[in-house]
């Protein structure tokens, strides 16, 4: 019988099947970005902790320079697989794979770097924020400051109105879509420039509540029937070059319940509110889109209720 946390984890994406982790190994953008960031931030002889280690590959990147790496993984199938893979790779002996819950684990001694890749576009489904914030509290209580460096260091989230083709060989099906982060998207027409709606900086306290209200100037005639969500992960800040090492999640496109006809020059107002780690459905249900009157009506309703 699964516990309440295990049931929630299964539903929200924490107990990710092994084959999804295999797909992550084949994601070249993810792999090269994390390898570069880890190489930049892990100093020779460092102590490193990875929360949610999966196949162990990010811990293995760290082991190239670190003295010791603790790789914490909840899924026993992945624990076995990570131990097996690490045994076949040089420096794998430096990684201790710990079967445990990232929400509860603390290393036996202070560490210099913490790697945590529980990242979903828009920060829904996975518990990156909760895991890191809980870790900060436990770590400070046990070891005091300073906190380790976190990989990723921050993330920037943006949203964009689209006209999306939902016809599949003539079958109309408005569905949630995940697509490679490229400029050219078949069947997608950008109707306005993306707007940044949230910045999460793990060097600071990060809350789970995410809310935004803003507007777009429509750039061409069309029908807004979806919103594209974009998440740019700042894996490392390279101060000496005044640049960053980044990784873009797949774009997530959410269909709107009520499509909106627009013309170039129109102002489209959008709002939504959700919690990091919550479901895609909760984000989708919170979306409001239309002209400025939708906010006026909502504000008037809130004023009457108060």
UniProtKB/TrEMBL annotation:
Domain Methyltransferase residues, every copy: 48-134
InterPro entries in alphabetical order: Arg_MeTrfase (IPR025799), Methyltransf_25 (IPR041698), SAM-dependent_MTases_sf (IPR029063)
Biological process (GO), any one: methylation
Highest taxon of the lineage: Bacteria
Keyword annotations: Methyltransferase, Transferase
MF-aspect GO terms: histone methyltransferase activity; protein-arginine N-methyltransferase activity
Name of the molecule in the record: Putative RNA methylase
């Amino acid at each position: 019988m699964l516990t309440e946390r295990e049931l929630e984890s299964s539903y929200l994406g924490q107990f990710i099947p092994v084959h999804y982790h295999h797909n992550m190994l084949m994601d070249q953008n993810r792999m090269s970005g994390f390898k570069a960031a880890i190489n930049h931030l892990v100093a020779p002889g460092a102590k490193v902790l990875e929360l949610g280690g999966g196949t162990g590959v990010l811990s293995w990147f760290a082991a190239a320079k670190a003295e010791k790496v603790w790789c914490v993984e909840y899924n026993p199938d992945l624990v076995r697989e990570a131990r097996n893979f690490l045994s076949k790779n040089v420096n794998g002996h430096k990684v201790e794979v710990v079967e445990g819950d990232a929400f509860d684990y603390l290393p036996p001694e202070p560490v210099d770097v913490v790697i945590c890749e529980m990242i979903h576009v828009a920060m829904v489904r996975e518990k990156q924020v909760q895991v890191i914030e809980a870790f900060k509290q436990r770590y400070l209580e046990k070891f005091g400051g300073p906190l380790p460096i976190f990989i990723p260091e921050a993330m920037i989230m943006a949203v964009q109105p689209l006209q999306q083709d939902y016809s599949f060989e003539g079958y109309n099906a408005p569905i949630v879509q995940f697509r490679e982060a490229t400029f050219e998207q078949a069947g997608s027409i950008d109707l306005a420039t993306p707007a940044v709606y949230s910045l999460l900086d793990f060097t600071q306290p990060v809350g789970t509540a995410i809310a935004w209200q803003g507007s777009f100037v429509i750039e061409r005639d069309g029908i807004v029937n979806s919103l594209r969500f974009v998440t740019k992960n700042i894996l490392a800040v390279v101060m000496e070059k005044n640049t960053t090492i980044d990784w873009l999640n797949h774009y997530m496109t959410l269909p709107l319940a009520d499509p909106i006809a627009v013309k170039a020059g129109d102002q489209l107002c959008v709002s939504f509110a959700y919690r990091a780690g919550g479901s895609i459905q909760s984000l989708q249900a919170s979306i409001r889109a239309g002209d400025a009157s939708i906010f006026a009506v909502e504000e008037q309703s809130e004023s009457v209720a108060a």
